[in-house]
Design a protein that fits this description.
L-homocysteine binds at residues 436-438, 489, 604. Belongs to the vitamin-B12 independent methionine synthase family. The protein has 27 helices and 20 strands. With 756 residues, it is α/β, with parallel strands linked by helices. It has 2 domains: 25-330, TIM Barrel; 415-755, Alpha-Beta Barrel (TIM Barrel). α1 runs antiparallel to α2, α22 packs parallel to α23 (619-634) and α26 (706-719) crosses α27. Bound molecules: glutamine and zinc ion (ZN).
């Protein structure tokens, strides 16, 4: 092997960068482009300015290797599909490359977009490349080469980043089953790309292989070895860094280290430890990029612990660089705008910019000794101490209440007995109809929220307007003849943020945006302390709605797992402990709702599957605590009170038996797109509770016909007896228009009535 471009090891880096812009500039520019308000040149200009400013910041912050090419107009997997000429044929006719790209991402009037799914166990969503026999790969490296050139011109020590062939193929959807057999077609293109990057002046290339942290078969591990043996045998290439993140690499690490690659990046915040590195002697000849600064959470790093880890690694690796554990895509840009946080809490946090500074400090301390970073180490210790001692992290009342609970707090009477009691209590027809919770978020609702925020209206006026919305939604449901009504959730713009703002133990940021997908950004709350409910959160809204009708109105709550999944969580106690605290607060709300006369309570857990650990060995423990936290949240009510839950995905896989474990009286689930197959899966798992498989897909503006809904219900009745079957759409209606919602629900009620 000969590497024609000289390279030397580096000491401080991050694995990837956010791209939405510190003030979501890219989001605004992209959406303006879609709306036709700016042209492609203007969009490219905004993007380039953002990249150059970011590169200059990182260079000035003292990183001696800077990732380039992690910028994206939408998504890095989509970029990889473009890089290898693997866009689906249905967009091929769109001549303009940018419009073709966005068509693949979002669809057009005539073209369906690529599917979108979660990036490993994060809240980022990527576009799933589609491969079939007709896919002919080809190399299109223009974007990456241009970003490399602009970084080099700026004097930045640039390290181009590409997604690796194993990850690209394993995550792609392939018509003929697994796509890994297509490695031989892709490898020559990777080799060509490596040569072009070397010629363009790259000393290092980073090849991302996060699939290395998932369970791989022996045969797949052989592919890892073969692939990187082949790539590292190239004559003309940069030094190769293979990056893994979000977990530990297990047996794949030794296979990788057997090859002639020059470096590996490992995630020391998610399972990798010093012993795993020491166990692989071949690493003593490689650069180890040690992800000791958590790239996914917002806590300040314990620098002493990180230094301990780094010091130990020095003995096992050829050289050690300090890094974030993964791309900084998953955390907000900077703490600077967060002037609203109390000083104490703020001192415990590190967003993107602060993490880069920590990495620099650690690298300095590692090479020059701790004296060289004495001030920063002292400050980090003081912050850690202040966090440890803060009374908000140790609420004795919450802890005492949890300690008192036992298994009886998680159980209700057997489900069939409850069903009989509830039938009497609620007096519902067979095939009862209901909806999932939200109704269209009209512009009146959005305007009222904005006016309240700006101080143009007071709280009383806001409440008046929200009540008017609730009254409309109740009247609509009465008119349509639905059986179990909802209040429509006008007061919530987000089902997690709403509760986080009302619970103690959570803090909200002003500008802590992270990309969820494309131009969609979220601002996750920060769960920093012990959680409790200072006062009721939903009672007045639900009580008002119930006062307008004699039909039962569902109390609507978000479950503990979903609240955790969409927040930045504490790292000083197990996630399961935080879940129990949130569950207790939700339980308090259910008990109060019941006391106020609410007869049906729904606790949504759309994220139950999202938090499922990547490794099969870790899944049973997760499923135990997540199911228990749901039961803790819901088992405090009388057996006559009907508990519903809503789950938002149709491929249940590993969580199917957990759904029965939730013991909710009624589970509404997405099924419209999976044609009711989910019911057979539930039956096979022994599920015998009420179930409302979504009878139409709310993700599309189409109004389903009565015949279509009848067909779906008839299919459902083959799998589920009528006394357990509910009739509902497959998710909340907040993104739909009022006209189509009314028409769709009218058909739904008509179909249910005819079948009865
Ligand atoms: N109750 C919520 C709604 O209807 C559920 C949303 C969800 O499933 N993500 O909007
Ligand atoms: Zn849903």
């Amino acid at each position: 092997m000969s590497v024609t471009v000289s390279h030397s090891p580096f000491t401080a880096t991050v694995l990837g960068l956010p791209r939405i812009g510190p003030n979501r500039e890219l989001k605004r520019a992209t959406e303006s482009y879609w709306a036709g308000r700016v042209d492609a040149a203007q969009l490219h200009h905004v993007a380039r300015d953002l990249r150059l400013a970011q590169l200059a910041d990182l260079r000035d912050a003292g990183l001696d290797s800077v990732p380039v090419g992690t910028f994206s107009y939408y998504d890095q997997m989509l970029d990889t599909a473009v890089l290898f000429g693997a866009l689906p044929p249905r967009v091929a006719g769109i001549a303009d490359p940018l419009d073709r790209y966005f068509a693949a991402a979002r669809g057009t009037d005539t073209v369906a977009p690529l599917e979108m799914t979660k990036w490993f166990d994060t809240n980022y969503h990527y576009l799933v490349p589609e491969l079939d026999a007709a896919t002919e790969f080809g190399l299109h490296p223009e974007k990456l080469l241009a970003e490399l050139a602009e970084a080099i011109e700026l004097g930045v020590p640039a390290r181009p980043v590409v997604i690796g062939p194993l990850t690209f193929l394993k995550l792609a959807k392939s018509a003929g089953g697994a796509a890994l057999h297509r490695l031989p077609e892709l490898l020559p293109l990777y080799l060509d790309l490596l040569a072009q990057l070397a010629n363009a002046g790259a000393q290092w290339v980073q090849i991302d292989e996060p699939v290395l942290v998932t369970d791989l078969t022996e045969a797949e591990i052989d592919r890892v070895r073969d692939t990187y043996t082949a790539l590292s045998a190239a004559q003309d290439r940069p030094a190769i860094l293979v990056a893994s993140y979000f977990g530990h690499t297990d047996a794949a690490l030794a296979a990788l280290a057997d090859t002639a690659i020059e470096g590996v990046a490992l995630d020391f915040t998610a399972g990798t430890d010093v012993a795993a590195v020491a166990a692989v002697p071949a690493l003593s000849r490689k650069l180890l990029v040690a992800g000791v600064v958590d790239g996914r959470n917002i806590w300040r790093t314990d620098l002493d612990t990180a230094l301990g880890t780094l010091g130990s690694l020095l003995g096992s690796a050829g050289s050690v660089a300090v890094s974030s554990s993964c791309s900084l895509l998953h955390v907000p840009y900077s703490l600077t705008p967060e002037t609203g946080l109390d000083e104490r809490l703020r001192s415990w946090l590190a967003f993107g910019a602060e993490k880069v500074a920590e990495i620099r400090v650690l690298a300095t301390a590692l090479t020059d000794g701790t004296d060289a970073a004495a001030a920063e180490l002292t400050a980090a210790r003081a912050a850690a101490e202040s966090r440890r001692d803060d009374p908000r992290l140790h609420n004795p009342r919450v802890r005492a209440r949890l300690a008192e609970l036992d298994d009886t707090s998680l159980t209700r009477l057997p489900a069939d007995q409850r069903r009989a009691m509830q039938r009497e209590h609620l007096d519902l027809p067979v095939l009862p109809t209901t909806t999932i919770g939200s109704y269209p978020q009209t512009s009146a609702i959005r305007l009222a929220r904005a006016a309240l925020r700006k101080g143009e209206i007071d709280e009383a006026e806001y409440v008046r307007r929200m009540r008017a919305e609730i009254a409309d939604v109740i009247a609509l449901q009465e008119k349509l003849g639905l059986d179990v009504l909802v209040h429509g959730e006008p007061e919530r713009n987000d089902m997690v943020q709403y509760f986080a703002e009302l619970l103690d133990g959570f803090a909200a940021t002003e500008n802590g945006w992270v990309q969820s997908y494309g131009t969609r950004c979220v601002r996750p709350p920060i769960l920093f302390g012990d959680v409790s409910r200072p006062e009721p959160m939903t009672l007045s809204w639900i009580g008002y709605a119930q006062s307008l009708t004699t039909k039962p109105v569902k109390g609507m709550l978000t479950g503990p797992v979903t609240i955790l999944a969409w927040s930045f969580v504490r790292d000083d106690q197990p996630l399961g402990d935080s879940a129990r605290q949130v569950a207790l607060a939700i339980r308090d709300e259910t008990v109060d709702l019941e006391a106020q006369g609410t007869r049906v309570i729904q606790v949504d857990e759309p994220a139950l599957r999202e938090l499922l650990p990547l490794r099969a060995a870790e899944q049973p423990a997760y499923l135990r605590w997540s199911v228990d936290s749901f039961r803790l949240a819901t088992a405090g009510v009388a057996d006559t009170t009907q508990v519903h839950t809503h789950l938002c995905y149709s491929e249940f896989g590993e969580v199917i038996s957990a759904i029965a474990g939730l013991d909710a009286d009624v589970t509404s689930i997405e099924a419209a797109r999976s044609h009711m197959e989910v019911l057979d899966d539930l039956n096979a798992a022994g599920f015998a509770l009420g179930v409302g498989p979504g009878v139409y897909d709310i993700h599309s503006p189409r109004v389903p016909s009565v015949a279509e809904i009848t067909t779906a219900l008839s299919a459902a009745l083959k799998a589920v007896p009528a006394e357990r079957l509910w009739v509902n759409p497959d998710c909340g209606l907040k993104t739909r228009g009022p006209v189509e919602v009314e028409a769709s629900l009218r058909n739904l009620v008509t179909a249910a009535a005819a079948l009865r």
